[in-house]
Amino acid sequence: MQIRGSVVVVTGAAGGIGAALARRFAAEGARGLLLADLDAARVEDLALELDREGCHTVGVGSDVTRESDVRALVETAEKHLGPVDLFCSNAGIGSGAGIEASNEVWQACWDVNVMAHVYAARAVLPGMLKRGRGYLLQTASAAGLLQMPGDAAYTATKHAAVAFAESLAVTYGDRGIKVSALCPQGVQTAMTADPAVNAVLSALGPILTTEEVADAVVAGLAEERFLILPHPQVAAYEQGRAADRDGWLAGVRGAVRGLELTAPRD
């Protein structure tokens, strides 16, 4: 997968990893970018910036938890830019809580972290399959392979996101469709600005910049790797988890021992 000459959609593009991907894709020579985010003003500003720099870019406000919005993204991209070569389903949220998070928070994590990927696949796959080629990049998390201590809903839904990406790869991999799951660990974003979250992630490994994640994405897409791991040590952690689950769980408990994690309320 080469970005140069491609039409790319990025959701969750107003900031964080999404904005870094947009800037990197523009620098790589994308033919067109469709950037979407719930924060319409910020994503439109970024689109205007990249368009002025020479990459044809459209920014739209969109709620990826609504399937009609996601379908509209694909229609807008096709109308203004051309057939979508790469769809980056990147929007994501955490709960910042354990099992005590409200049902509404659990549902929001499910809607953004899982169903948004489902809606993206439904919207873009028919055209890709007709053309016999296409690429889906789904931002999950190292938590989707391992754990995010203190955030049960985030961990559970990111595991589901990785499983869904695997399902797509199995079902459509022989029909010209490539799939990658982006699984970074700690990244400098608004989600990790919270001191408690930052403390947990820092205990587990280094905190990368969003630009470093974008570098890893471009390299992973070029190699068409299913798992894109900006933190290479995550592969070893996952292997250790599979080889000795009890020992791995004990190790994670030890790494975060003494940190203030959430606890059920009475």
Describe the protein:
The protein is α/β, with parallel strands linked by helices and 266 residues long. The chain has one domain: Rossmann fold (3-Layer(aba) Sandwich), CATH 3.40.50.720. The protein contains 9 helices and 9 strands. It has helices spanning 16-27, 40-52, 67-80, 103-131, 152-172, 195-204, 210-223, 233-243, 245-256, and strands at residues 7-11, 32-37, 57-61, 86-89, 134-139, 177-182, 186-187, 207-208, 227-228. The strands form 2 sheets. It has a 7-stranded parallel sheet, with helices on both faces. Helix 5 (152-172) links the parallel strand 5 and strand 6 (177-182). The longest helix has 29 residues, at 103-131. It starts with 6 loop residues before the first strand and ends in a 10-residue tail after the last helix. The relative contact order is 0.13. The model has no long low-confidence stretch (mean pLDDT 93).
